[in-house]
Amino acid sequence: MQPTQRGSQQQMPPTPALVFDVPKLDTFLTRFEQALAEHWPHSVLSYSFKTNSLPWLLSYMRQRGIWAEVVSDTEYELALALGYTPDRIIFNGPIKGRDRLWAAMLQGTVVNLDAKREVEWAAALARQQPETPLAVGLRVNWDVNEYCPGESTSDGADSRFGFSPASGELDAAISTLRDAGIQIAGLHMHRNSLTQSVDVFRAAATVARDLISSRGLELDWVDIGGGFFGAEQGHPTFADYVLAIREVLEEVIDPARTRLVVEPGASLVAVPLEFHASVLDVKQVKDHTFVVTDASRTNIDPLFRRKRPFQYDLETNATHTRPLQTIGGYTCMEDDRLMDIEDEPALEIGDRIVFYKVGGYTMCYQSKFFIEFPPAVYIRTHEEELILVREKPSVSEYLQGQQWIPAGDHINAAANGKSQWLAPHL
Ligand SMILES: Cc1ncc(COP(=O)(O)O)c(C=O)c1O
Fold first, then answer.
1. CATH code assigned at 67
2. How far is the CA of 240 from the centre of ligand 1 (A)?
3. For 212-227, b where at least 16 C-beta lie within 10 A, e where not — what string?
4. Which residue among 46, 128, 207, 230 is least enclosed by CB atoms within 10 Å?
């Protein structure tokens, strides 16, 4: 189906569909670029792949000169496949594989270690190649609640990431690496927080500052992580964060020599994504109105834990309102309900609902197939043109790479005492 024109001049995609608004995305990218250019020019803006790994988006980031921040071998390989060079990748996370880690260390990737086996593997590489200069960063485990009470996003206050200075594991990692002749070139400070306040980043910088001076570190980078607030207007701005971080770190490092690495995700891509849905049916059950749509909460709140209300627009010719309408999804789960709306136009079949600001941690958690395939994705260009960048998958694409015994062979497989769905080669 082709996009249609409705009401305003803006093109509308057939529903359900996700739409990335490129001008909005550019606004956020430019803001972060400018904040760094003004307050820490010797810096790296990387994008956290996990937040939304739509291939179009990742390619667009690369074209804009933004680096990749990846946390698995698979994400690393995706970055390479999309044309990122190893020296424009930040490699984080505790699940790196040994061979990928070694290749990354040898090819100029910014590597932050986050597991003891990675420290051992790095040391082993240094022993194998004593002439090759090697450098890594270490993720620091620090207690956000100690500095900013109530900010931790985990149930207990403790984070499970990084090496703890308090338990001695950070110093043990430093000694192992130094003994192997590896430079400790960076600290990685990422922590999510509840309010994304500037104070959390000031605290991260403070922990880094104290480690730099107490451990005598000469760093090439401080990676302050992601977790920034990215609103269309108001504070904190990206510049507020960079300035606060700089104020603290300047006490122990020269920003002209040590790079600040940032790895934002949601603050760049949440706002620019819209989700378009249509009303399929309107049902009355006692005094309750249910609006059945071709959207699902699994599309835009896949973990069912969103607390903030959605921002939305209704496109309808309705002439009266209803006191309460429940907007329901297409799945068979009773709790697949997107929102209750009060005193809003009485929706009818064919009306459109547009949900805004749904780009962060939505598409990446969406199942490959639950009743429906994930929706098509469009971009809206600066010229307000809609371009399809990902089709909704087809059944034949879904079946690609799968192995199964065709219908007629079930009986033979059962007779051989094998499960009927064993792959033929097993
Ligand atoms: C190591 C790391 N960097 C960056 C991010 C991006 O965070 P956000 O999307 O909140 O900016 C995350 C997300 O949890 C992360 O774990």
1. 3.20.20.10
2. 19
3. beeeebebebbbbbbb
4. 128
What DSSP line would sit under 242-310, residue for residue? HHHHHHHHTTTS-TTTSEEEE--SHHHHSTTEEEEEEEEEEEEETTEEEEEES--HHHH-TTS---SPP
Is 262 in the same domain as 364? no
Name the nearest CA neighbour of 138 among 207, 180, 92, 192: 92
Q: Do 133 and 72 fall into the same domain?
A: yes
Instruction: State the average pLDDT over residues 32-47.
Output: 98
Q: Is residue 303 part of a domain?
A: yes
Residue 97 and residue 117 in contact, taking contact as beta carbons nearer than 8 Å: no
**Domain boundaries, position 393:** 4-17+271-398
For ligand 1, the distance from its centroid to the CA atom of residue 393, given in whole angstroms, is 28
Among the candidates 207, 242, 269, a domain finishes at 269
Q: Whose CA is nearest to atom 12 of ligand 1?
A: 226
Mind listing the pLDDT tens digit for each residue in 249-302?
Answer: 999 999 999 999 999 999 999 999 999 999 999 999 998 999 999 999 999 999
Residues 253 and 293 in one domain: no
Q: Does residue 106 belong to any structural domain of this protein?
A: yes
Nearest alpha carbon to residue 93 among 78, 112, 68: 112
Structurally, the chain folds into a number of domains equal to 2
- The CA 108 to ligand 1 mean position distance, Å, reads 22
> What pLDDT, in 10s, does the model give residues 148-182?
888 888 766 689 999 999 999 999 999 999 999 99
Residues near ligand 1 with C-beta < 6 Å? 48, 51, 69, 92, 190, 192, 225-228, 263-267, 360
In a domain, 64, yes or no: yes
What gap in Å lies between CA 86 and CA 88, rounded to an integer?
A: 5
Distance 267 CA to ligand 1 centre (A): 10
Atom number of ligand 1 nearest to Cα 263? 4
